[in-house]
Specification:
Layout (H helix, E strand, L loop, with lengths): L7 H16 L6 H8 L3 H13 L3 E3 L5 E3 L1 H31 L2 E8 L2 E8 L14 E3 L4 H9 L2 H8 L13 H14 L2 E4 L6 E9 L5 E10 L5 H21 L7
Antiparallel strand pairs: 1-2, 3-4, 3-8, 4-5, 6-7, 7-8
Helix pairs in contact: 1-2, 1-3, 2-3, 4-8, 5-7
Length: 255
């Protein structure tokens, strides 16, 4: 029963989201969406435009609407965060043992990476970071690992936002795009003092069966004791770990 204080706009928006969800992978046209929601095409277009801008819906080359990455990310944060953390935890501990350095687990939310778990290094000099904090995608190894494998439209939307130069080494613009192409090719990203001076990290994405990034992890350390070569030495095992975490949360390994 409605309380009389509900918002008709919010109700209509959720009707549209529900109709797109019911359409499944094939998606739904604007006209079909209007028919399923029982509202005028012009009104549907107005609501859909806002939902597209927010990333709640996406539109393919044929003009069909699908659920957007923002909605998927929010749902993923709620449904998979605990499962991802539980699945990843023993592997994070293994990486700490192998590297001797701090390991983070993060998930993409909007245009940022949210830290959801952390296993500390036993070394006396440690990194200052906390679970629940957010970091830029463009300047972190986890963020770049995620950006590199996002679909092009979503990546473009995120990169259209501010690209703050956190250090003199932060990559932006064409240099960042070239870096993301390299990351996509090699399967891992390195933050070479790009987010914080004196800190170096190597990060990898955790992919769904559809190739969408549902999370990422990184090994981070003071740059003076964690060289680029150290990062590369960890990559073979880290790649295997990323695939194994994906399998443990129900995402088959991809070729």
């Amino acid at each position: 029963m409605k309380s009389g204080r509900t918002s008709s706009s919010v109700e209509k928006a959720f009707e549209l989201i529900g109709a797109v969800s019911e359409a499944g992978r094939a998606g739904v046209t604007l006209g079909e969406l209007a028919g399923r929601a029982g509202i005028a095409v012009s009104t549907t277009h107005r609501y859909a435009t806002t939902l597209l801008e927010l990333g709640v819906l996406e539109r393919d080359a044929a003009g069909n609407f699908h659920l957007g990455i923002t909605l998927i990310s929010l749902a993923g944060q709620h449904l998979h965060e605990d499962g991802l953390r539980a699945a990843a935890r023993p592997y994070l501990a293994e990486l700490v043992e192998i590297s001797g350095e701090t390991v983070h687990l993060g998930i993409p939310v909007g245009g940022q990476i949210v830290y959801v778990d952390k296993v500390e290094s036993a070394k006396s000099v440690r990194l200052v970071s906390r679970i629940g904090s957010r970091a830029s995608m463009h300047s972190t190894s986890m963020g770049k690992a995620v950006l590199a494998v996002l679909d092009e439209r979503r990546r473009t939307e995120i990169l259209a936002g501010p690209q703050e130069r956190h250090t003199p080494y932060t990559l932006t613009g064409a240099a960042l795009l070239a870096e993301l192409a390299r990351v996509r090719e090699q399967g891992f990203a390195i933050d070479d003092e790009e987010n914080e001076l004196g800190v170096r990290c190597v990060g990898l994405p955790i992919l769904s069966a559809l190739g969408q990034p549902v999370g990422a992890f990184s090994v981070s350390a003071p740059a003076h004791r964690f060289s680029i070569d150290d990062c590369h030495r960890l990559v073979p095992r880290a790649v295997a770990i990323a695939a194994e975490i994906g399998r443990r949360i129900g995402y088959p390994a991809r070729r």
